[in-house]
TrEMBL record:
GO cellular component: plasma membrane
ABC transporter domain segment(s): 5-225
Organism: Herbidospora galbida
GO molecular-function terms, A-Z: ATP binding; ATP hydrolysis activity
Membrane topology according to the record: Peripheral membrane protein
GO biological process: response to antibiotic
Name of the protein in its database record: ABC transporter ATP-binding protein
SMART domains: AAA
UniProt keyword annotation of ATP-binding present: yes
Record keywords: Antibiotic resistance, ATP-binding, Nucleotide-binding, Transport
Subcellular location: Cell membrane
Length: 231
């Protein structure tokens, strides 16, 4: 089976700042991977290059053995980016139906609503929803093309603890490959099969939560990354 994601020797710099430094990573189909790291670790840059939004300085990336743009165009990949804007004065139903119209073989509307946890509020206007509900709408738009891979870039950024719990609790991934970046260890612990930790553009830990904890407490290691005590 072709791997969902293959990254080989990825490097990306912004002027004199090396955001991603020789990253290699393979994600098999069906896996849920959490990408952790402090601000500036290279998580968002890695995702942006993977999705074809940024050109790499060196290295290669592929999605299901294809280039990123081709895979996304054919609906193989659904993307939920940080703080993407939503149009005001439209209902959830109108927005999701518009998103479905973009793809050649979209997921049925009722399945999108169910998987995104939007049942009962799909006739509401988007600008009248809570922050957590708006994040579910963004998730619904990522599901619209019936993707095999979901890429969620900081999906709960800016939400409080209760809203984060509510967001994850109402979602259904339905066996898809999922890659999500996060600053929250509890999210990785609960929802990921595998955790990859980045720091200064490099991969510094890779394994299941249990495997990483064998070498020491995961939270202590993460705090050490943030404080710069380890490279």
């Amino acid at each position: 089976m072709t791997d969902a994601i293959v990254i080989r020797g990825l490097r990306k710099a912004y002027r004199h700042v090396l955001a991603v430094d020789g990253l290699s990573l393979t994600v098999p189909q069906g896996q849920r991977l959490a990408l952790l790291g402090p601000n500036g670790a290279g998580k968002t840059t890695t995702i942006s290059v993977l999705l074809g939004l940024l050109a790499p300085d060196a290295g290669t990336t592929s999605l299901f053995g294809r280039d990123s743009r081709s895979a996304i165009y054919d609906g193989l990949v659904g993307v939920m980016q940080q703080e993407i804007g939503l149009p005001p004065r439209v209902t959830v139903r109108e927005l999701v139906r518009f998103a479905r119209a973009v793809f050649p073989a979209p997921l049925p509307y009722d399945e999108i609503v169910a998987q995104a946890g939007l049942a009962g509020i799909d006739r509401s206007r988007v600008d009248r929803l809570s922050g957590g509900q708006r994040q579910r709408v963004r998730f619904a738009m990522a599901l619209a093309g019936d993707p095999k891979l979901l890429v969620l870039d900081e999906p709960t950024a800016g939400l409080d603890v209760e809203a984060r719990r509510d967001f994850w609790g109402g979602l259904s991934m339905s066996g898809r490959t999922v890659v999500f970046s996060s600053h929250h260890l509890d999210e990785a612990d609960r929802f990921a099969d595998r955790i990859v930790v980045m720091n200064r553009g490099r991969l510094v830990a890779d394994g299941t939560s249990a495997e990483i904890k064998k070498g020491g407490d995961l939270e202590d290691a993460f705090l050490a990354l943030i404080s710069g005590r380890i490279a």
